[in-house]
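Before going further, it is useful to explain how the protein records used in this thesis are read. An example of such a record is reproduced below.

***
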Amino acid sequence: MRNPLFAGLFLLIILSSCNDKSQNYKLVEDYIFNVGFVPRNINTYLDKPSGEEMLYFSDPESKKTIKFFNLKGELQKEISLKPALDRLGSIDVITVISFDTIVINSNYTNKLVVINSNGQCWLFHDLNKLIKNKTENNYEYYGINISGQDRDKKNLYLECYFSYDGSDIEKNLVPKAEYEIFKYQYKKSMEAPYILKVENYLTENPTFSHHLYGFKKEFSNDTAYFFDRVNVKMNNSNFIFSTVFCPYLIEVNKELSKVNKLITISSFRDTIGIPPMFFSFKTYKNMYDKNLKNIQESSFINDFYVKEKQNGYYVLVYLPNNVKNEHINEKRDFLIIEYDNKYKKINEYIFDNGMFNGGYAFMTKKGLIISKNETKYDEKPAYSLISFTN
């Protein structure tokens, strides 16, 4: 007679083995970079003249420098950021077009400079003055590191954060209390543009246009608030957005005029997306603290990567953080979910041994590289090239 307990146990083992992809990747090689400081900003750069693929590491505030390394770990270039910092007062996003064209945005002040390989500022834009009187609304503009194999290098794209409506100030409709200002800005932002496109930005006379009005409604609504953080890539001339609050990617056409599709990201391990919060808190701090708690307890899309030949995607999903009282993610478990170029799911792979930091992963010509945890806060960060098998 067949033993039903044995049969059930056998079926459970089979199902578990079908779902568990934790062993379906391997470490190909390591890259070690003797940076000499703990980097604040890290990204990739392809130097077209040499064809060399590089990682760059910067410390704008303390060391005031940016260093470029090839994947052999050899220092190729170091450029001073001090002139840019002196001009801007603060540094937010660094976008490297070439060694002689590095675009640097400030924090909060809507200013940017372009520096050359000697660190000299050869172009300066004050967006407040250039865009003045073009709209009654006032925005803070923040840099976006748009990556992808066909990234648009002719135009600059900035993220718009609604600040206030000039007509509301005249009518005394802008609240005074911090939390009330916050709610006012958020509600107004639901109809505001999300992207500022800057054309001819490497000239003295750039042109500006706002795009994606009401885009926040794609991942929010006017009664629930998200501490929204957006990742942006380009593929086949389309823009692809993700946020930690949505279980999907948002594909937008190259004109930034409409949403093409929503691509659902799913896992058999957990639901994806940080839950929204409603305006029922007494203070901004109460809301912020609750959001931190949600971040630790939820699974969410941290980032995604376009494969080298544009034939698919890797989506990195953080799993709930089980480490008590820890608001940092360097040892947090995460998934890599693989999709083809039609957004059909191929596999998912779990990284749950604390070896890697999912917050620092980059796509290279050879494949996906991920930061190794033991060197995250060291002056010699190391990365591993990961190979996935089905």
In short: The chain has six helices and 26 strands.
